[in-house]
Each structure stands twice: as structure tokens, then as C-alpha cells.
Amino acid sequence: MGLLDKIFGNYSKKELAKIEPIKNKVLELEDKYAAMSDKELGEQTALLRTKVEETSLDDVLPEALAVCREAAWRVLGKKPYPVQIIGAIVLHQGRIAEMKTGEGKTLVACLAAYANSLTGKGVHVVTVNDYLAKFQSEEMGKVFNFLNTSIGCVLTGMDKSAKRDAYNADITYGTNTELGFDYLRDNMVIYKKDKVQREHTFAIVDEVDSILIDEARTPLIISGQGDKSTELYSMADKFAKTLKPVTVIEMDDKADNDLLDGDYIIDEKAKTATITKSGVKKAEKAFHIENLMDAENMTLAHHINQAIKANGVMKEGVDYIVRDGEVLIVDEFTGRVMDGRRFNDGLHQAIEAKEGVEVKRESKTIATITYQNYFRLYGKLSGMTGTALTEEDEFREIYKLDVIEIPTNRPVIRKDHPDVVYKTEAGKFDAVIDQIVECHEKGQPVLVGTVSIEKSEHLSKLLKKKGVQHNVLNAKYHDKEAMIVAQAGKYGAVTIATNMAGRGTDITLGGNAEYLSLAALQKDGYTEEQAVEAASYSNTDDEEILKAREKYRELYKKFDAEVKEKAEKVREAGGLYIIGTERHESRRIDNQLRGRSGRQGDPGESTFFLSLEDDLMRIFGGDRITGMMDTLNVDEHTPIQSKMLSSVIESSQKKIEGRNFNIRKNVLNYDDVMNTQREIIYGQRQMVLDGEDLHEYIVNMIKDFVDDSVNMYVQGDIADDWNLVGLKERLNGLLTTEDDFNYTPEQMDELDRNEIVSTLQERAQKLYEAREKELGSELLHEIERVCLLKVVDTKWMDHIDDMEELKKGITLRSYGQKNPVVEYRMEGMDMFDAMIESIREDTVRMLFTIKVRTNNAPQRQEVLKPMENHHNMNLRKRNKDSNS
Ligand code: ADP
Ligand code: MG
């Protein structure tokens, strides 16, 4: 096996070989475009667009990439390396490019986006946060502007018209959250002009593992005000606090769990809380009910379940934090606060009750989609990240994406030391501190990764005792994140971070000139906003900003020289030293941490310090670890070397990765049921929005409604069995009056079913024709449109909420043999059919009865009135001034 084979999987190597000739073509074109004037180069876009129309994008790709490459060189002073061209080709092919941190993925996306924008159909570049979206779109925007290609950036809280402009641009930057919400909001508008997005043609997802895997467990939800009370949460919480929990590492299915001495069992491995018989008894007594498991007590049972989970399993500082009276989710993978997201299923409220903050009113889900299904909307999807290979299967199975590992521009010379394992956690932390002190003394910067905020703070305390100056970076200090991370490579810097905090920010050795300049500007009296504006590439004529920009440039020059000099010293000290303090559940996250060192051929080191008391070992290591604990005759400060340990760690991680994959698949399985339905409803909405003439459709609806009504009450041939009273009641005030169907027995004998149908059909038709005369065709057709949308939306929102309830119910009731997803699909289909029928009924009723004020001109407001509840929606992600 050659060296390449060893470093890269065979698959990537083969695929790279196929890409090689395209890359070479791009490189060969360098001279051609270098010879062009700026103007000429800028004009290439129009030429290439025509060429794409005449041939195909694949044919034009090399030229497009070469043009963009030359433009990046002229505008930004950065010439994309050959590996970056390969990355861009991989993206263009709709795959995942695995490229390490610092390889310049931002520029890779720029190349691929430019080439694909030539079709005129719009390209979305997806980032993990607003800061990155803004920064990248402005920097790369310079290149796009130069190439006469329009660029937009969608940010949280932007108004609709600004968003629409951004989406109409050739290339649009935005976060996964905002894009997903815009899609959902677009499917709630009444007029087509209110939509902001165009079609979903091509997306490039940056940090693709974070977005398509880590975030994929929590769907996007838009919620409206619900009418359910919140009192029960506090009651359930008070009750749960009286219960006695018992903690086990893993629940044993075969053992009789009720024999355990406790009211509920906390399973550390599965992160669940299960009530025992004694707990159930106490609940029945406390809430004065006979049987908690009765169907009528399902709501209470659900609240109690969530309360014991909140109290027994969910931990402050690990799973969530409380800030300003609000419970905020902490992403277990990134350590970030997930602003505006809430645990679903009432768990969030249960935690609010537990923490004694205001329990937010239970809201009603009115629109929802998973990231999986949102991103599957794109005709072509691609992504990039430093760490994708461990999740290759999932990308392939869920998104049909393959992962191509792209070699680094320069060889990685970072030294990854083997794990060092201690018997106790205390012993481990002592060793970590020693290592930090050792590095610190010779000026080698250290980045320490921890798995939780709690551990970060613990470590910080230990360092304080030693008098080592350091920065702590975790979800609680999210604002300054980028700034602190950027300085983590300074001579002698010590930075503690929860996993992957500050993703997307590059750690350059010696410090970061950009951030130093920013800080200096602020010291000079500029506000943070002004400073950022000065550092950005945004277009402006503002004198103040232009002046600040000049100042920024000067500062930058000065700091850049300083940083370069200091970088040399840091290199001599060994480069950035990465310390892991615990293995994460996923190997990918560990790799992510290591990868922050050794960028672009820099020196660096990494070591993971572990202990047998770490959660991963304790919970997933099983008996082998416990046995080892007992028999090992070492003190807590002696590291244990063991092959067995390494394999236990690796296999534990694989196990958890598999389990998490299953959790995500399960979320998806449920959403797939909804997705089929969502596609039907959104498709029909689109048809209405597109202004297709609905009149005929409505006339048929009326016919079906009459048929359905008769079928419901008039079955069989025997008139005596018919329920004419029922039929009359159903249609009363609409098509029938009290005087109808008052037949004598003799008349009944003569009665023909078809006659009833045709009489009613005729009445309906006449009535509707009369409406058309009364209102005029134009107005009636407008009313038809609005009524249909209004009814569809109301019913659909109720339906979504019902489906949520159904899901809760099904997961509660079916532990046994039945596959809950299948149950959910079947019952969900019935509910969907029932919804369609009731949409028909309500639309017809509304059209027959709606009153329109016709003093002079017809008043449109009156018609629109029922729609008003649209404005009561609030996003579960709190967009402060979004105008949905
Ligand atoms: P990644 O996202 O892969 O970690 P970034 O896109 O953040 O990397 O780029 C890291 C740094 O390298 C940035 O400062 C960027 O401007 C710089 N860079 C990227 N490509 C080049 C290039 N071809 N030449 C010079 N500098 C580059
Ligand atoms: Mg990046």
C-alpha cells in the first residue's frame, strides 16, 4: 500500500483521481485569465452564463473556477490552492468535502457558489451562525461584486423585503435556522408576493456535520399561543420532588425493577427516568386518582414523567443553563446555548418548574420540519467540514451524500500523543494542570477542551489556585467567543473551552491581527459595532466608517507584523498544545478539538487525559472497567497504559455514535410521515398562491360535499333506514330548511335516493350561482382563494398539533410488540384523510355563508378577517423583530 492509501481511504483516493484532470484544467487556465484586465475578467460572468445555457455547467466548470480563482487573487490577495480547487469541484458534484480546519473552506465555498450561480437559479451558502454568515458574505462578496454576481445575506430579524432581496441574489448566505424558518413561514403566507425564498436548487453547508448531524435531533418548530394550562407542571414538579430516586447505570429488562428501593429509576446510560410501583402509588394518593395508568389520566402521567426526567436526569450546567429567568438548552456537542430552542414534549416546561422560573405557556405547534427534510428539498446538496468521515454512513443513508477526504495543502506535522489514563478524576485533573503549567512556562499556548460548563469551571478554579492566567470560553460567554478563540494561539495563552466553542474561527499562531485591531479600535472609543463595520468588507459611503476603516487598516498592518514575529516564537515553543480532558461521546468531536492545532503545516501537539471515573468509562465501559478499578494496584497519580483500555474507549464511542444515529433516525422516521403530508399541503397551497383558477375546483368541492353528506346519512335502498333528520340538520341553513324532508310514510316509499342527491346538487349550484351574481365573479374568485387558504391553514395547524399529541400518546402506550412508527403512520393517515374531508366541508360552508360588506366598494378586510390568527404566531426561536 502506498503512502496515500495509508493516509486516505481507497474510496476518496479513487474519486480524487477522477477529479484531478478537472483541477488541472483550472490550473492551466490561470495564465489566460491573469492576462485579462479587471474589466475583461468581470465580463466573463455574462459570457459564461450564456455558455452554460448552450452547453452545460459541467462543461463550463473549469473556466468558471479559474475565473473566480483569479478574481479572489486580485480582490482578496488570496489565490486558492490546488486542494481548494479540488474541494470546490467536490462541492459542485453534490458531495461532502472533508477539509481540515484552516484549509480555507470559506474560499472553497466561494468558488463552488460562483460556478453554480451561473445557472441563475440561486445558491445558498449555509453557516452555523449569523456572525459567520455576515462576515463570510461580506468578504466573499468582494469577489462576487467584482465578477458582477449579486450576493445577499439573510440574518435573523431582517425584514421581509430585505430578506427577499437577499434570496433573489445569485448567491445567498444564511444560517440553517433562518433558512429553515423562512421556508416554514413562506408556507403560511396568503399572497405569493409575501414569500421570501425562491426554489431550493443548490446548497453548500459549512460545518456540515454540525448542521446535518448534531442539530438534526431537534426539529424546527414555529408555535402559536396554546390554550393549555401550565399549572400542572408546577404540581407535577412539587410532587416529583417528594419522590425518592434510585440511580442505576443501566436498567435491567429482566430484573424486577419494582424491587429497587425508590419511587423512580434514573438510568444513566439511556438518560431516562422511569416511575416504579411505589412511585405510582404515591402519585395516585397525591392526586386522588384510582389508577394513574388509566387512559383518562394520561396527561397527568405524562406530566409526572417529564417532571421526574427534569429532576432526575436533566442537569443544570450540562444540559441547560438558567439565565435571566429563562431555561436555555446547551448543545451537548458544541457547548453552545441554543437560543430560542426549547426541549419538546413538555420537558422544557418541566425544567422551568423545577428551576422555579416562570413556566412558559404551553404553545401549540403550527409548523415544523426537521433539518433532514428541509435540506432534502435542495435539488443538489453539498457540504464541508473538518470531520465527516466517522459519520459517513449517516450522510450516505440519510442525505445520499458521500464524503471525499481532501489532502491538506501542507502536511500535518501535529503530534497526537496516546491517551493518558488515570484511576481517578482527581488524579487526571492534577496531571492536566501539570501539563498546562509545563506548556505555559515555555510559552506554548494551550487549548483545553472540556465536555461541560461545569467541568470548565472546575478546571478554571484549579488553574486560579496555581496562579495561571487563562480564558474560559463556554456557552455562558458566547458573545466574546470568536474573539477569545482567535487569540488562543498567542504566546503563553491558556484557553479553556467546552467542545468546539467558537467553531469557524481560525486559531493562528502568535495571535490574530484582525481581532487585535478590533480591540484596539474599541479602546480608541469606537463602539463594537463600528469596529466590526470598520473591519468588514461591506459597501458604504459613510465618512465615519471609511475613516475608521483606514485606521483599522493601519492597525492591522502593525499587528500583522507583530503577530508574524510572535508566531515564530510560538512555533519554537512547539505550537498549539491541545488537551482533551474527557473523551466525548462522539469521536468526531474529539477530532474536531485536535484539529484546531496544526493548521497549514504548523507544529502542534495533542493529548487526551482520561480517568476510569469518566462518564464514558463508567457508564459504557461495563464490567471490564469496574474490574480493572478494583484489581489495579496503582495510585491515582500513575498513568495506566493499556491496550484494552484504548479499545474499550473506542468501542464505547462507536456504540454511542450508533445509538445517537438511531435517535436521529427515529426523529426522521416520524417526520417522514409528516413530510408526505406536508408536501401535499404545501403543494396545494402553492397552487392556490400561483393564482390558478380555483373556481372549477371549488364547484367540484361543493359537489363532493353534497355527495359526502348524502352518503353519510342515506345508506342502502331501504328508505326506513335513512336518517333524513340527520341530513337535514347537517345542511340546515345551508341547503335545507325545516320544511324539507317532512314526508308521509307513503311518500317515503316512493322516495328515490338519486332524487335527493340531484335536488340538493341543484340547490347548491343555484345558490352558488346566486352568490356569484351577488358578489361578482372577480370578488368571488378572490374570496374562494382566501377562504380555501384560511381553512387549509387552520386545519393543517390543528392537524400538526394533533399529530404531536398522537406521537406522545403512541410512545407512551406502545412499549410492546407494535412498531410505534407504523402505528403513527397508520393513524396519521386516517387523521389526514379526516382533515381533508373537513377542509372540504368548512370551505364550502364558509363560501356559502361568508358575509361581505357591500356598501360601495367591497371591503377586502372583511374577507380577510378570519386570517388574523396568523399574526398571533410567535416563533419558538425568538426572533425579536421578525415580521412574520
Ligand atoms: P476553514 O474554514 O477551512 O477552517 P477558513 O476559511 O476560515 O478555513 O480560512 C482560514 C484562513 O486562511 C483565513 O484567514 C483565510 O483568509 C485564509 N486563506 C484561505 N485560503 C487561502 C489562500 N488560498 N491563500 C491565503 N490565505 C488563505
Ligand atoms: Mg470555516
TrEMBL record:
It is found in: Cell membrane; Cytoplasm; Membrane. GO terms for molecular function: ATP binding; protein-exporting ATPase activity. It is a peripheral membrane protein. Keywords: ATP-binding, Cell membrane, Cytoplasm, Membrane, Nucleotide-binding, Protein transport, Translocase, Translocation, Transport. ATP binds at residues 84, 102-106, 506. Residues 86-224 form the Helicase ATP-binding domain. GO terms for cellular component: cell envelope Sec protein transport complex; cytosol; plasma membrane. PROSITE patterns: HELICASE_ATP_BIND_1, SECA, SECA_MOTOR_DEAD. One of its GO terms (biological process) is protein transport by the Sec complex. It is an enzyme of class 7 (translocase). Residues 1-641 form the SecA family profile domain. InterPro entries: Helicase_ATP-bd, P-loop_NTPase, SecA, SecA_CS, SecA_DEAD, SecA_motor_DEAD, SecA_preprotein_X-link_dom, SecA_SF2_C. Its EC number is 7.4.2.8. Signal peptide: none annotated. It catalyses: ATP + H2O + cellular proteinSide 1 = ADP + phosphate + cellular proteinSide 2. Belongs to the SecA family. Part of the Sec protein translocase complex. Interacts with the SecYEG preprotein conducting channel. Has a central role in coupling the hydrolysis of ATP to the transfer of proteins into and across the cell membrane, serving as an ATP-driven molecular motor driving the stepwise translocation of polypeptide chains across the membrane. NCBIfam families: PRK12904.1, secA. Monomer and homodimer. Part of the essential Sec protein translocation apparatus which comprises SecA, SecYEG and auxiliary proteins SecDF. Other proteins may also be involved. This is Protein translocase subunit SecA. It comes from Ruminococcus albus 8.
